[in-house]
């Protein structure tokens, strides 16, 4: 009988194919093989596979995001714990951010002996299938942009420190946005979001001027934000618009379920905070609009009599079209208003400081971000939006007006709606 390594290789090859019967047969061979030997082979291959991901741009949170999206929950949890096993054997220096991500994910490892049986919950066959599925994912992920020096390589040199008040400012912003998300009064949400945006914009300007005189100035960095279904494209558009308003650039990887945002650290923090809050506000407004729309349709049905069945036909498609149009319109309108607010803050700050340092510094930082985008994503393309539901588009625009800052002059946007 083949050894455990060969049986595992056969099971992985079969799982990648299209023959379900062959995949089940290969899994059966693993089930009847020597359990400790199979577990050892699985763990060794998983650790090797995970270690190969880091130089290819992947980070623990990226892997967990795509595993949660593509795999069964138990398989995703198995990979999460496998991260802790791999960390134990990681050669070379390990940057602090890597361990912080493992802690955030709750990755844990409680010993090699019997590791799969402890996760089997009495069902070894399913546990083996979960492990094989997880390994297939790990070994077939493509290279992505390297945003941070990976573990095992040269440690990143420390950059200029953030202003002492930076963390306190972010705490204030989080508190303001949390209140904006929870209030049921649009005017209050607008005021709270506006104050948060003002704080972030002014903090960004302070950091930019301080960094311009630093001996070792910061360089553009990057973060990845998830764009899960439903309405992944609309969520990616919201990220793009918030990024543009905060001097960042966003590139969406549809097949991998995330958008990569590139910019300077203070601006990236603003994008993450504001995007998260606005997505909550947009979703809540969309659901309210959908409910009001359906209530109106229900009244029409009661008066229409024989037309009731016809109105119900394709209701799911109508709802999907409404939701997509709502979220797309919300994102574009938010982008216009945030960019106008950022420009106003820049002008006000330049006047207050009474010098010509600010605008050249901001222009240089924007150039640096665009150069970084060109380096990491030389083949990026753009696409046009399609408006599928005029009512959803109008409602989304109105919701953005209520949820964001006062309207300003319209600004250029990279993606325009088309019919």
UniProtKB/TrEMBL annotation:
Ranges annotated as biased composition (Basic and acidic residues): 292-313
Residue span of region Disordered: 292-320, 393-419
Pfam families to which the protein is assigned, alphabetical: DUF2786 (PF10979), DUF7168 (PF23771)
InterPro entries the UniProt entry points to: DUF2786 (IPR024498), DUF7168 (IPR055592)
Residues covered by the DUF7168 domain: 236-364
Annotated ranges, domain DUF2786: 168-206
Protein name (Swiss-Prot/TrEMBL): Uncharacterized protein
Organism: Micromonospora viridifaciens
Organism classification: Bacteria, Bacillati, Actinomycetota, Actinomycetes, Micromonosporales
